[in-house]
Input
Amino acid sequence: MKVVLRRPALWAASAFLVVLAAASGTTPVAAGLYNWKTSKVVQLTEKNFQSLVLDSKETWLVEFYADWCGHCKNLAPHFDRAAGNLDGVARLGAVSSDDAPGLMTKYGVKGFPTLKLFSGVTARDRRPSDYNGPRTSGGMAVAIKAALKSFVTVIPAGGMETFLKEVSPKLPHVVLFTSKKTTSPLYKGLSATYEGRIAFGEVRGADGDAAAKHGLASKKLPGLVSWAAGSTDEAAGVPHTGAVEADALRAFLDAVAAGSPVPSDDDAASSGGATADGMADASAAPEATPMGGTFAQPPAGDSGVATVDSRAAYDAHCGARKDGRLCALALLPDGVSASLTPAVLESLAKRYQFDNLGFAVVDVASSGGAELASSLLGPDAVASNGAFAVVRGKKSKVTALVGEGVVLDDASVGAFLDKVVGGDARYARFAGDVPHWTAVAPAGEADAPSDAETEAAASPAVHAAADEGAPADTGSTGTEGKAEEGSCAAPADGDAGQCEAPRSNGSA
Output
């Protein structure tokens, strides 16, 4: 049964997610993925998307996300870091599925996170392209810089007077004197931000003496000089004396665009969060928008930790799970370690209950557990302190955190699982065939049902698989098939993870 969250339930779910984030060791921000008051990521809604993104000349990378999506949570710190690193160069914005269901429909969003790049001069040019590159701040920066459009006029030797008189003569002008032969990403980005308000020029390969003729007090390059609208006197340029960084440059350019006296160093330092486009601060409190429709949060998985003490238990919890989840398997001597206690494993299970993982533990000190470890990872692969693996039972593949020098604790296993659900894990084939073994009944439980009786009660598919020594094909979904609506499926080998968007209950 699919549960559709109405507003009261949605608020309750948001509170639950904050608690869940605290349990995972991450810092919750504003009941969502980003702190709109401090982050350089812009909150985009159905009300401001047209004016900020579509009517702009700036390059935008837009993330369509859902608060419950595990892959979105993994992407958030990288996206946030990229927004800070590219401040002044381009803009990064995020659209919540709850706040903007109409945009989800308009842009064909079927999974989370979806990243789209908006760049170009005309409305036709600004049709978005999908970003499918690395989900790292560096990878996103490379793609964004490659997509930047420049509104900078390159001024040849002796061409300054012509630039001031003939290039957008009704606008103020700024000229960058630089020793470089190409336009920097920051100058391209600023030219897009102020396009239509300031005419940007650039003198390349300039020397300090040439720059000094146009108002620069220092011979140090690069140097930025401004002229008021209508000014054609080359000697009347006013230099920028502040830092060459985004906030100080925006304060200078805002003053140039407004025809005001340019700020001094002290004014630039106190300008703080001056906006890049002269419009209202996009990081202010979010606008209230109609819901228009609600999206279902995926059902939580079983947050318990199963014990794999037989082939039947392996098939039920790893090899042929009926819910399609991957098996997060702790391979520990005696089923426990000092740093991976039952309480820690249960905490991990709760943390990843929305991420297509089911948790289990096996005692590798037992003969059956040792054989299972060998079949998955190879003989003697499991170190004395154990190992942690994620098993794709239907495809007989495994990825593992293993080795004598590996510390198995909450932090290291959590980092390993983040890579799994984020699509960065690499899987290998099982080292051998999964063994058959039966559970050993503790003393005093002679009347308990035998493992063979338990196997006989299992589904025919599981039972047949056990007879053939291979995982059963139960027709389950998940990584190997279509993800359940609203689920965060762990990705295929090498693919970027994505949470599937559920059907909307409203107009979306």
Remarks:
- Residues 85 and 137 are 8 Å apart (CA to CA).
- DSSP finds 16 helices and 19 strands in the chain.
